[in-house]
Design brief:
Elements: E1 12-14, E2 18-19, E3 31-32, E4 45-52, E5 63-70, H1 79-89, H2 94-99, H3 102-110, H4 112-115, H5 117-128
Parallel strand pairs: 2-3
Antiparallel strand pairs: 1-4, 4-5
Length: 143
Amino acid sequence: MVLCCLLPEHFYTCDSPKLNVSADQNRDVGYCKQFGGVNYEDVTNTSVYCTVVNGVDCYGNKTFIKYNVPCLRYNGYYFPTIVLYSLFFGILGVDRFCLGYTCLGVAKLLTLGGIGVWWVVDLILLIAGVVPPENGYSWDQYF
């Protein structure tokens, strides 16, 4: 029989990290001081409680702490999809609406992408990684 904390990830579910700016990430389980980060080094880690799925037999406590969980949030933002939106519908501000920048999307729509200039600049900034999803969300992974 396998120790519960050593099971593969599809045999247990974990709580999602929550935001708490005053949290001590070395002691407070389940809390992050910030979410996201542009570079790998910018992403902080925390610990979360995990529970083994019903019907799975393992040795030890069925609720355990998983360490070094990255403080990332995902909300359906796929980079290739947003780039295609920006390429084909960016002049109407669809890319900004999809990323959560509603005011910029309206402005881009009303000016027709800054008569094309804003559209091209936005496409370049998006591909360069300068324009991330709003509210600290990270790009979803396909795998």
